[in-house]
Each structure stands twice: as structure tokens, then as C-alpha cells.
Write a structure and sequence with these properties.
alpha+beta; Uridine Diphospho-n-acetylenolpyruvylglucosamine Reductase, domain 3; Alpha-Beta Plaits; 2 domains; ten-stranded antiparallel sheet; 11 helices; 21 strands; about 20% helix
Length: about 450
């Protein structure tokens, strides 16, 4: 089956289960969906282990299996036609003060983790736009925050533990396994079922967030890095109309010397009320703004943990490309503005530092990310994506692994210099392709 035909509209949420459990056999809804409801999973055989040992038993008994995280992927990366495993109850958090690391279970979300380590005087280097996602799922797909000098979330990984296809527990660390950990951190679910992740920490810090309105795109031609370097983390939002970013969100660390923020920022005016990135949405769900300092984990995300993030029912696509091509890429996409805007909630522009993780979308390149949050209108969006991708193709774009795209497999594979090494690593831990699903087959193995 074509991966793009998997998309179905449904509003049924994932319900809890024991290990093992077949949902439809118990009279429960036969359809389970991802977080936004745009993707319906292809099996109701969902296992929810509570321990590593239970995870091993599930892996050994299943001929085919895919791991399911916090269900924030918008495509079939976590799907299976036979079995899924969701270790969402595995929520251990173990802090190592001496090593300045924390080891978390596969079910821990960033919003669960952050206040625990902050209370002990520690922080992570960055967070995604919403704290609702799991650590395990985020690193598997190279999910990121923003910042010229901030790598994606997987760059904080100093060790992982997973159950390989034979049911054995594998532990990799930066000190002992070096290059192999770089291959295994952004693993796309191809190596096994993640059970624990160890992350680097740093001393806790505070962040102040300021929003500006209506930044002309023309500023970015000569000041792109100045704009994105105005804070520790910077995001631009646009509807692609009127040649401007509708909002600029600048997050500055109070423990560092950051550029002074005045009433105007390259022609943009400082907001005097709290804003939501999507015009017309109330700002209650958003993190504090107006320059008020607060804990790192209450400012780096755009959305608060106890609220529905973004729009809720939506579609998402994202493309990363070399930062030096950022301005012409923005202008190229802008040419499609009248086709994009009617189906768009908002587009966000962010930067991500280069890394050396084999399957990372920022592998060996500082990147600009162009992120689209779409209205739940898949037929229209699906028609637009190839046009956007054609505009971005000259810039060697890499689509976000967990979002919607129509990029041809050959083009996608050509963007990853270590793909052959990654396939060899996957074969080492999964020689019979137990964890390979249609998504991986289509995107990584099809010609």
C-alpha cells in the first residue's frame, strides 16, 4: 500500500490498554488515530508494556512490530499493519548529578521531565514548540526547537537503551560507542523498541520572551542571521501575504548577554499584548511573553503543557535546508502564497544548528526550517505539497521525518550521506526487518 494512501480522517483518540490487548476484541473503537486525528493506525493490536522485561517478551513474540510514542507524528512512521507497542507507562526519571545527565523511560514527555530536573537545578539545552511530546519519539525523528547555536533535541542524547529484534537489551553510550550512537540516536524506529534515553543537562536558566509584529521579509536578505541571532531561540511566523512575517518571537536567556530589544526590531513593532502564532486564536494556550522572565521550560516552548497546542485538528509539514539558502528559499515559497494561504493556519521559520547524527535533518548543515501548520484539508494540502517541494528542491531540502511530505524516495535518500551506514546498523539489530514498516520501506529502501 502507498504510504500516502494511509491518511484517513478520524477523531477517535487512543485509549489505554493492558499488555497484551487487542482493542476491538474488547468492544472498543476499531479506529485509533494520532494526536491531531488526521492519521488512522492500521492495526488494533497495541501492546503497552510497563517494564523492560515485558517489552522483551512482546518483541520476541511479534514477527512485525512498530513503536508508538506520544502520537504526534502526522504520517505513517509509527504505523504497522500487524502490531504496535507503546511504552507510555515507562516514566522513570533518574538524575545523575555528578555526570550532569538524566535517564528517562520511553514514556516520559518533555513536559513531565522539565519541572523535575529544574527543581534539582538543571535544564535541557532546548525544547520543541510544545512540551507534550515524548523524549523517545522526539529524538527518533530529529525533532527540534530553534536557535542558531542549538542542535535538535537528539543532540542531547548521551546514551540509549533499546530492545533489538531478538529481544536482547542493547545499551549504547557516547563514551563507549561513539559513532554508533550517532547513527542510533535518530533511529526512525528501525533498530528496536527504545526503553530508556540518557540526556545531557546544564545548569538551570531563565528566559524572557518578546514578540514583534510585521517584520518585512526584505530585512532577511542581508540580516537573516542577525534576526535569528537576536535571542537564544527565535521564530518567525507568516501567512505568506504582504511580504512579511506577521510575528517574531524572541526568547532570550537572562544569564547571557543578549542583544538589547527596543520598541522596534528591524521595522517590526513590539507587541503590547500576548499573542498566539495563529491569527485570531486566543493566547491562553501560549507561554508567557511581554519580556517577563520565567523558567526555561515555561518559555522555550510556544505552548503550555496543560493546554491544546497549536490548533489541535491540523496537518503539519516541514522542510529543512542549508541556512545560507534561507532567504532565496523563503522568497521561492512566497511565490505560491495565493495557493498556500487559503489552506494554512500559519508557517513558522526557525533555525537549527548543524550536528553529526547520521539521519538528522540538520546533519552537517546549519539549517533553516520552514514549517507549515495546515487546516485539516488533506486533498488540498496534498496538491500543494509537490509545488512547495519543487520550489525547495534546488536547495537540497530534507523533510521532517514525522510530518507530511511527498518527496520522491530517490531524492530523499540522496540527502543522507550516511544512509548506507544506517541501513547496515538497522540490519545488525534487525536482520529480518521486524521493525520495518511501509513508511521505512518506501522512503529508505525503495528506488
Amino acid at each position: 500500500m502507498d504510504k500516502r494512501e494511509f491518511l484517513k480522517v478520524s477523531g477517535v483518540a487512543l485509549t489505554g490498554s493492558m499488555v497484551p490487548r487487542v482493542l476491538h476484541a474488547l468492544g472498543e473503537p476499531e479506529e485509533r488515530t494520532n494526536w491531531s486525528g488526521n492519521y488512522t493506525y492500521s492495526t488494533n493490536n497495541l501492546f503497552q508494556p510497563t517494564t523492560v522485561e515485558e517489552t522483551q517478551k512482546v518483541v520476541r513474540k511479534c514477527a512485525h512490530l512498530r513503536a508508538l510514542g506520544s502520537r504526534h507524528s502526522f504520517n505513517g512512521i509509527a504505523d504497522s499493519t500487524q502490531n504496535q507497542i507503546a511504552p507510555e507507562t515507562m516514566k522513570s526519571i533518574n538524575l545523575d548529578r555528578a555526570a550532569e545527565t538524566v535517564t528517562v523511560g520511553a514514556g516520559v514527555r518533555y513536559g513531565d521531565l522539565a519541572p523535575v530536573i529544574d527543581a534539582k537545578g538543571f535544564a535541557l539545552h532546548n525544547l520543541a514548540s510544545l512540551p507534550h511530546i515524548s523524549v523517545a519519539g522526539a529524538i527518533a525523528t530529529a525533532t527540534h526547537g530553534s536557535g542558531l547555536h542549538n542542535g535538535n533535541l537528539a543532540t542531547a542524547v548521551s546514551g540509549i537503551e533499546f530492545v533489538a529484534a531478538d529481544g536482547q537489551v542493547v545499551r549504547l553510550s557516547r563514551e563507549k560507542d561513539g559513532d554508533e550512537l550517532k547513527g542510533a540516536s535518530v533511529h526512525l524506529g528501525a533498530l528496536g523498541v527504545l526503553t530508556r534515553v540518557t540526556l545531557d543537562l546544564q545548569p538551570t536558566y531563565r528566559v524572557a520572551q518578546t514578540v514583534y509584529l510585521d517584520l518585512p521579509f526584505s530585512v532577511l536578505e542581508h540580516h537573516l542571521e542577525d534576526v535569528f541571532g537576536a535571542g537564544y531561540s527565535v521564530s518567525l511566523f507568516t501567512d505568506w501575504q504582504k511580504g512579511r512575517a506577521t510575528q517574531v518571537w524572541i526568547k532570550q536567556r537572562t544569564d547571557r548577554k543578549e542583544p538589547a530589544l527596543e520598541k522596534e526590531f528591524y521595522g517590526a513593532k513590539r507587541a503590547i499584548t500576548r499573542m498566539h502564532p495563529i491569527t485570531g486564536h486566543p493566547a491562553d494556550a501560549c507561554t508567557e511573553q511581554l519580556g517577563v522572565p520565567g523558567p526555561w521550560y515555561e518559555r522555550l516552548p510556544h505552548f503550555r503543557m496543560n493546554f491544546t497546542p497549536s490548533s489541535g485538528h491540523e496537518l503539519q509539514t516541514e522542510y529543512l535546508l542549508p541556512l545560507e539558502h534561507g532567504y532565496p528559499a523563503i522568497r521561492a515559497v512566497e511565490e505560491l502564497r495565493d495557493q498556500i494561504t487559503p489552506h494554512l493556519f500559519v508557517t513558522e521559520l526557525r533555525t537549527i544548528d548543524a550536528d553529526d547524527l547520521w539521519m538528522s535533518t540538520a546533519y552537517q548543515q546549519r539549517s533553516l526550517a520552514i514549517h507549515f501548520t495546515w487546516k485539516p484539508e488533506w486533498p488540498a494540502v496534498r496538491a500543494i505539497l509537490p509545488r512547495i517541494e519543487a520550489k525547495l528542491e534546488p536547495f537540497k531540502t530534507r523533510p521532517h521525518w514525522a510530518k507530511l511530505f511527498t518527496v520522491a524516495p530517490g531524492y530523499l535518500q540522496a540527502q543522507y550521506a550516511r544512509l548506507a551506514d544506517f541501513k547496515a546498523l538497522a540490519h545488525q539489530y534487525d536482520p529480518d526487518a521486524k521493525f520495518r514498516n511501509e513508511y521505512l520501506q518506501s522512503n529508505l529502501y525503495a528506488s
